[in-house]
Automatic annotation (TrEMBL):
<dbReference type="InterPro" id="IPR027268">
    <property type="entry name" value="Peptidase_M4/M1_CTD_sf"/>
</dbReference>
<feature type="transmembrane region" description="Helical">
    <location>
        <begin position="68"/>
        <end position="86"/>
    </location>
</feature>
<feature type="transmembrane region" description="Helical">
    <location>
        <begin position="119"/>
        <end position="138"/>
    </location>
</feature>
<feature type="transmembrane region" description="Helical">
    <location>
        <begin position="150"/>
        <end position="171"/>
    </location>
</feature>
<feature type="transmembrane region" description="Helical">
    <location>
        <begin position="231"/>
        <end position="248"/>
    </location>
</feature>
<keyword id="KW-0812">Transmembrane</keyword>
<dbReference type="InterPro" id="IPR033803">
    <property type="entry name" value="CBD-like_Golvesin-Xly"/>
</dbReference>
<dbReference type="InterPro" id="IPR042097">
    <property type="entry name" value="Aminopeptidase_N-like_N_sf"/>
</dbReference>
<keyword id="KW-0472">Membrane</keyword>
<dbReference type="Pfam" id="PF25275">
    <property type="entry name" value="Golvesin_C"/>
</dbReference>
<feature type="domain" description="Golvesin/Xly CBD-like">
    <location>
        <begin position="974"/>
        <end position="1102"/>
    </location>
</feature>
<feature type="transmembrane region" description="Helical">
    <location>
        <begin position="21"/>
        <end position="41"/>
    </location>
</feature>
<feature type="transmembrane region" description="Helical">
    <location>
        <begin position="178"/>
        <end position="196"/>
    </location>
</feature>
<protein>
    <recommendedName>
        <fullName>Golvesin/Xly CBD-like domain-containing protein</fullName>
    </recommendedName>
</protein>
<keyword id="KW-1133">Transmembrane helix</keyword>
<feature type="transmembrane region" description="Helical">
    <location>
        <begin position="260"/>
        <end position="281"/>
    </location>
</feature>
Length: 1106
């Protein structure tokens, strides 16, 4: 090849590309689009109230976002430019001066490629410079030049060369420009939308859907693996471009030159394939190791274990290695002697010796398991010393997590990926948690085969760290520094400890008897300026927040210090239901990912919102703002869930929730029969109410899905069901925890039970507690036999069906006082007991309509409804009730919660009784004068048109859920079932709806009239007009007609009645009286309506005299 020729061709190609209108349009659109994205998504210029900080908290986020969008757009436009090069050149009009000169095909192809690459890299540099300008001067986020250059060279350039080479090759083979465009765009779309995660991302030639974000402290999560993938595509691009040299027929080729070119290109393509193979094998090797560790855990799961009473750990960090010595005291609390002692330790830590009383003991190593050949008698205690050294394998972590979740690197609500790290051991940063088993333990941290059958082992830990560096060493307990030796001593037994060594700065404050400390990486103090004005008042604010949390959770903070410690952005953990907390939440220490990126807090935006919106009563001064900022930050650390997107039912478990420090790190309830009882009791004490306002009244959420699951599965089955989504199991766990609480508080007050629990667990803090002890103390204190309930609670594989009727409220006048009685009837025809809960909202004159609620004061009660029996429940209220919520809890009912509004209470009675009273179940028999056909009944059917499906329907995933939530901004094109309490149903309150149409779609109710006579025909108006206010406001109106036409067919007769459902009340609405002969009657409703949608629920025939 001739470099001079290549440069000449490249310069000429640059001129041609610049003159291309296609490129000019692309360049302008790319600059405008990326500028708009950067301004709107990563600066506060467009929306000053937006939570910007989580998108800019680390220095690599802004350049990556730029590269992400540019790279995708670049790949598409390159297809058009590269695919047309042969066609354009063959015209001999624009490139004749080059095309006819005696230059080799290699010079020609390489020169054209270099010219195109220069143009696109120049454009990419311009967009990066604009992003850097915004990065430095506008949003003042962390800036580092390295990611800008890194992403340009490792993401943009390899994908550009690969797409160029693939397009050149495709054009040479297919010899048709249009076909080439279609094939290339198909490849790009398939990879981007369907293959990004296939085989761990090996097909992602864009390089934007594999972990690419850098920590400003520790760098990339796995830089070698990232570079291997990108280098493979760089080689593939070079190989394909080289192959084009042989495929282009511009000049005749000598056979030996063709052979050389094909050999050269084949070697590059082979090297690229080898790189891709090594990339896949790396992950396969990780999974193979992980599977070996899982099998080892399962192998020893049923082997009797000793209890670890004391663990005196001494470690010396040595770069990427660790030398350690643990002196442990173990006790055999099993019912029989043991012939060996089992320990667990990270599999890459080599055990050099196990000693007892100065003598070496024989031992065997099976991956993470250490079998020590030392008998131990029942109730005997022994002291052993274990010496070990080596590296830390992260593959041992989270072996109980599903493989797809373990491999999933996506971050909720954003498109970038941090990658996952579970431990660090290096000179730059060290972070070791109990999950990586960095010190010997006798109880495995996980049980992959039975995740809920894992005991906590409360141990007296002492940690001594021999460290000669200048970084901060952090762990649980009180620290003492003696030269290069740092000792941490704990006053309480703990379930585990962590070790962190980092270049930290520290802020500390002591309030009352608790030390509050923040450890953050040097240069990462983004928060102090917001709280410095509170320096005088901060102790009082902290005291108030701590007291409020302790009162809300009815538990005192058990530790002498509370620490926030910053970690790299890639530090990953999982919300595992069996554990009740994540590895972010250690005893005394909360690990916060870099600059608080995952907490969703933007102090600057929050302050702007306060300045803009103020508060009720006027603007907030600076002190009030800072206190509010602090309270909101603490709230983010104590909330149970964090919202994922706009849908309030789409929530994520908050991995930084610190409330487990009050529960999960302080006690453990052990039970071989009910291994889930510990986390159930913790949830019972720690779970807050999830009642919230639903604008459109949707109830199909994970809680309801959990309830549906329990209709055919037991709690016992659920804990071993690996197909059950963690989010659904979490809601199932909360339902079962609430059921346990409701059973007890149906017999005693909640206040008495809370006092008992607090006293019981406080007196047994940092201990393993047999469940029989808790069961005995409850029976001794309250006379409640949990044994009568707990087995059914755990093993029942079906749920009761509850019928509710005659909900009413009346006033009672006693001398000068007025009280109120709410009463209703409930029937449980099932073979299993049910528990219902009521909550009366007092103090309103009607409040909001059914389906919403405005609570002033509430009173919650629980009632047991025995199997096969009916009850009448009467509740006395001192204040006027606004409404009552009746929750059937774990039941076959859908939805489980119903709100009944008392807009008027006119009737006065003298009955002052309250309580629960047996009644005859016959009162729930159907009215013999009524015939009701609901949409759930066999007499109801939907009629759909035979319209062809749209192309996009072919790619929709099958949805097994029968019921959906009604959403005012999206109307389905097909009949769709919804479930909500404003729909009719004895146990399942549902209806079907769709968008308005031409009348080709319909529903039909069919029944048999038993005898000739007059019948009043009614339809159930599942009125959603109150929920449509949002839709009306969006469209600039407040009222529209919503006419639906019902056609009644009987005895060859046909009559139609049109109703404006918005003008009718919710519930049964009469459409008229009809004389109906004995025989079949059909009512039809089509989708030809005047409103936005048509809804069909139930119809009723009531026999009348005339």
């Amino acid at each position: 090849m001739n470099l001079n020729h290549i440069n000449v061709i490249a310069r000429y190609e640059v001129k041609l590309v610049k003159r291309s209108w296609l490129f000019r349009i692309f360049a302008i659109l790319a600059l405008l689009f990326i500028s708009a994205i950067m301004l709107g998504y990563q600066t506060g210029i467009v929306n000053r109230m937006d939570n910007l900080w989580p998108r800019i908290a680390v220095s690599s986020l802004m350049p990556f976002c730029n590269t992400y969008f540019y790279n995708i757009a670049q790949s598409v436009i390159v297809v058009f430019l590269a695919g047309s090069f042969l066609k354009r050149d063959k015209k001999l009009d624009t490139a004749e001066v080059i095309y006819v000169r005696p230059m080799s095909n290699a010079d020609y192809i390489v020169g054209k490629t270099w010219g195109i690459v220069k143009v696109f890299i120049t454009l990419n540099i311009i967009t990066l410079l604009f992003t850097a300008f915004l990065n430095i001067l506008i949003n003042k986020s962390p800036f580092d030049l390295f990611p800008y250059l890194f992403y340009l060279l490792t993401i943009s350039v390899p994908s550009l060369l690969f797409v160029l080479g693939l397009s050149f090759t495709a054009m040479c083979i297919l010899k048709n420009q249009a076909v080439t465009f279609i094939v290339m765009l198909g490849i790009i779309g398939t990879v981007f939308f369907y293959l990004t995660d296939t085989l761990y991302g090996v097909f992602d030639f864009f390089g934007v859907n594999i972990p690419a974000i850098f920590s400003d402290v520790t760098g990339h999560a796995d830089l070698r693996l990232f570079l291997l993938q990108r280098f493979s595509y760089l080689l593939a691009g070079i190989g394909l471009i080289s192959m084009t040299i042989a495929l282009v027929k511009r000049l005749p080729h000598k056979p030996w030159k063709i052979a050389v070119v094909y050999t050269f290109s084949s070697l590059f393509l082979l090297a690229a394939c080898l790189g891709g193979l090594l990339y896949i094998l790396h992950y396969n090797h990780q999974l193979d190791l992980r599977n070996q560790y899982i099998m080892t855990f399962d192998k020893y799961a049923d082997v009797p274990h000793v209890d670890l009473l004391v663990n005196d750990i001494s470690v010396t960090p040595q770069g990427h290695r660790l030398a350690g010595k643990s002196t442990v005291k173990v006790a055999n609390n099993n019912a029989k002697p043991l012939d060996k002692i089992i320990f667990y330790l990270n599999p890459e830590l080599t055990v050099t010796s196990v000693e007892m009383a100065g003598k070496n003991l024989p031992f065997r190593r099976d991956h993470q398991v250490i079998e020590v050949d030392q008998p131990i008698q029942q109730q005997e205690e022994l002291t052993l010393t274990i010496n070990y050294e080596g590296k830390i394998s992260e593959n041992i972590c989270y072996t109980d997590v599903l493989t797809e979740d373990y491999l999933d690197t996506k971050v909720p609500q954003v498109f970038w990926r941090f990658g996952k790290r579970y431990a660090w051991l290096s000179n730059t940063f060290t972070l070791l948690t109990p999950e990586c088993i960095w010190y010997p333990v006798t109880i495995a941290p996980v049980n992959p085969g039975a995740p809920y059958n894992v005991r906590k082992n409360f141990t007296d830990y002492t940690l001594t760290v021999h460290y000669e560096g200048d970084k901060t060493v952090l762990s649980q307990g009180k620290s003492k520094i003696d030269g290069s030796v740092i000792t941490f001593t704990n006053t309480s037994a703990l379930p585990g400890i962590s070790l962190t060594i980092a270049d930290y700065d520290k802020k500390a404050l002591r309030v009352d008897s608790t030390d509050y400390e923040i450890y953050y990486f040097k240069g990462h103090d983004y928060f102090s300026k917001y709280f410095e004005p509170l320096s005088d008042t901060l102790p009082g604010v902290i005291r108030e927040v701590k007291n409020s949390l302790e009162i809300e959770k009815d538990r005192d903070y058990p530790f002498g210090k509370f620490v926030l410690a910053e970690t790299p952005v890639q530090f990953a953990t999982y919300a595992r239901n069996w554990k009740g907390y994540t590895e972010y939440v250690m005893p005394e220490i909360l690990f916060v990912p870099e600059r608080g990126i995952s907490l969703g807090q933007d102090f600057e935006a929050e302050r702007r919102r306060m300045n803009e919106w103020g508060r009720h009563g006027g603007p907030m001064d600076e002190t009030e703002q800072n206190i509010s900022l602090f309270n909101r930050f603490v709230s983010s650390l104590t909330s149970e869930n964090s919202q994922n997107g706009w849908n309030p039912d789409n929530k994520l478990i908050n991995k930084s929730n610190i409330t487990p420090m009050l529960f999960g790190h302080t006690n453990y309830i052990s039970s071989p029969e009910y291994p889930v009882i510990d986390i159930a009791v913790n949830n019972m004490m720690n779970t807050s109410s999830d009642q919230g306002f639903r604008f459109w009244g949707g109830i199909i959420n994970d809680k309801q899905r959990a309830n549906l699951y329990l209709e055919s599965h037991s709690f016992e089955t659920a804990i071993g069901d690996t197909e059950l989504k963690p989010e659904i199991f979490y809601e199932l766990l909360k339902l079962k925890s609430a059921a346990l609480n409701n059973y007890i508080t149906s017999q005693i007050t909640q206040e008495d039970f809370n006092k008992f629990l607090k006293a019981f667990f406080t007196s047994r803090q940092f201990q393993n507690i047999p469940f029989d002890t808790l069961r005995y103390e409850i029976e001794k204190r309250f006379g409640i036999r949990l044994s009568d309930f707990i087995d059914t609670w755990y093993t029942a594989s079906h749920t009761p069906t509850i019928y509710i009727k005659d909900v009413d409220a009346n006033q009672i006048v006693l001398d000068e006082f007025t009280k109120y009685q709410i009463k209703f009837k409930v029937n449980n025809p099932s073979d299993i007991d049910a528990i219902i809960s009521t909550e009366v909202m007092q103090g309103g004159g009607g409040g909001m309509r059914r389906g919403g609620g405005m609570s002033f004061e509430t009173e919650k009660k629980n009632y047991i409804i025995p199997a096969g029996e009916a009850r009448e429940i009467k509740i006395i209220s001192d204040e006027r009730p606004a409404n009552i919520s009746i929750n059937t809890n774990i039941s076959h009912n859908l939805p489980t919660s119903h709100n009944f509004n008392f807009s008027k209470i006119d009737n006065t009675i003298s009955d002052t009784t309250s309580g629960i009273y047996p009644i005859n179940p016959d009162v729930f028999k159907p009215n013999p004068n009524e015939i009701i056909i609901d949409n759930e009944d066999p007499g109801f059917r939907t009629i759909a048109s035979n319209n062809r499906h749209k192309l996009k329907d072919l790619f929709k995933k099958k949805d097994d859920e029968k019921y959906k939530n009604f959403m005012p901004w999206w109307m389905p094109s097909q009949w769709t079932a919804i479930a909500a309490d404003y729909c009719y149903g004895e146990t399942i309150n549902s209806a079907v709806y769709k968008n308005k149409g031409s009348g080709a779609n319909a529903v039909e109710w069919k029944t048999e009239i038993p005898k000739d006579g007059y019948y009043e025909v009614s339809i159930w108006n599942a009125k959603m007009s109150g929920r449509m206010f949002f839709m009306d406001r969006r469209r600039g109106r407040h009222k529209e007609e919503r006419n639906q036409t019902y056609t009644i067919q009987y005895d060859k007769e046909k009559e139609s009645v049109t109703l404006d459902l918005d003008e009718e009340t919710e519930g049964w609405v009469s459409i008229g009286n009809f004389y109906l002969p004995q025989g079949e009657v059909i009512i039809t409703l089509t989708d030809k309506v005047s409103g936005d949608y048509v809804i069909a629920d139930a119809v009723k025939f009531t026999a009348t005299e005339e």
